[in-house]
Amino acid sequence: MIALIIVGVIVLLLIVFVIGSYNSLVNLRNKVKDQWSQIDVLLKRRNDLIPNLVETVKGYATHEKETLDEVISARNSAVSAKTPGEEIKSANMLTDALNHLFAVAENYPDLKANTNFLDLQNNLKETEDKIAYARQFYNDSVLVYKNKLEMFPSNIVASIFNFKPEEFFEATEAEKETPQVKF
């Protein structure tokens, strides 16, 4: 009789552990998805600002077609991305293209003084700052989730219920390079 009670308590504790671990994993996975959706909203905002910026620059920098095409191509790639991995890659390409565009804009004093351009540039800068913060929160959420997936004993529950790790939002090689400052 006592052995049956002990076995029952152990089974009950095991069930409580599995339920708690499962719910914790679901909570963390949903937090990662929520953080990704925050980034997605900001990326879409940035994608909506870019056509206006390109049109403004076109009027001043007519012989910078290659740079403008690079921005447009990167934006189209970002808009058509289907998976978070594709969105991460295309968002990084778009950031590089925008940085190149702003570097080119430095050669056009009239463009730099254009209020529409300045307003668009400020909006993009604010959006880029928000994206950077959102990436940080997303990566923090991915880290907590991955730790839970890999740490014992919750890794057993994760493998039983087929929880999959998420990707970090990582900087491109171009973003990791030290910028050249020349006077």
Automatic annotation (TrEMBL):
Entries under InterPro entries matching the protein: LemA-like_dom_sf (IPR023353), MamQ_LemA (IPR007156)
Q: Does the keyword Protease apply?
A: no
Q: Name one Pfam family in it.
A: LemA
Identify the keywords attached in UniProt to this record, alphabetized.
Membrane, Transmembrane, Transmembrane helix
Question: Which compartments does it reside in?
Answer: Membrane
Query: Where on the tree of life does the source sit, at the highest rank?
Result: Bacteria
Give the GO cellular component terms, alphabetically.
membrane
Q: How does it sit in the membrane?
A: Single-pass membrane protein
So what family is this one in?
Answer: Belongs to the LemA family.
UniProt-recorded name of the protein: LemA family protein
Origin organism is Candidatus Coprosoma intestinipullorum
